[in-house]
Design a protein that fits this description.
The chain has one domain (3-243): 3-Layer(aba) Sandwich (Rossmann fold). 42% of the residues lie in helices and 19% in strands. It contains eleven helices and seven strands. The protein has helices at 3-9, 17-25, 29-39, 58-62, 77-86, 121-132, 152-156, 165-175, 187-199, 207-217, 219-227; strands at 45-50, 67-74, 91-94, 108-112, 138-144, 177-185, 236-243. β1, α4 and β2 form a beta-alpha-beta unit. The radius of gyration is 17 Å and the shape is globular.
Length: 244
Amino acid sequence: MTAQTLMTSQPNATADSDDFEFAALGEANNYRAALLGYFSGYLRGNVLEVGAGIGQMTAGLLENPRIEKLLSIEPDTGFCARLRTQFPRLDLLEGTVDDLQPDSDWNAVLSINVLEHIETDQEELAAYRRLLLPARGTLCLFVPARPEIYAPLDRDFGHFRRYTRPELRGRLQRAGFRIVQCRYYNFCGYFAWWMNFCVFKKRSFDVAAVRLYDRVIFPFPNWVETHICPPPIGQSLIVTAIAE
């Protein structure tokens, strides 16, 4: 997050939403592996991870032999303390992309479930482009999709929005990116989110349900989406875009 938007986004989140979000998503092993696998061809050289959280993606990044330098950014002091304990050798910046010194050429910026937390998201995309431009690097971006399934839980998480594909493409192009791919992701998850959090208006994840979805339901539809046909809608949008 940028310094300015970090301040404005705080009232949009409940105090402990991050904790119950991370606890449930800790069960989504196949889901996380699929995301990193999708971006794997671009995660090489110097990689910047924006919004490391408690390190659920960081662990996989540290195991990637193609990444020569990894810098993780996280604005939350408590999460940074957890990261330092879990990954003592991690190069970690407590802050935002605005706090970075322009002393590295970044081959990739990884931003997973971050942009929706930022009120001035167009400025954030412009900041990513500035960081990537010297090396013509790639933005690996993942955000929640489809405004019609914006639920009370989204508000609890501090989400300002869910994106449509045309909307996100437009913002990326205005920021100066050439889009390689921008597609919907997790077709089944769209309906699961709508039912649980829009219809029944649940305000937390069921950890056992997340584990069941990740182990039993997610793998085959994800294989179809990846290898045969991208879905017409999905719970999220997944993007690769080159800074130009």
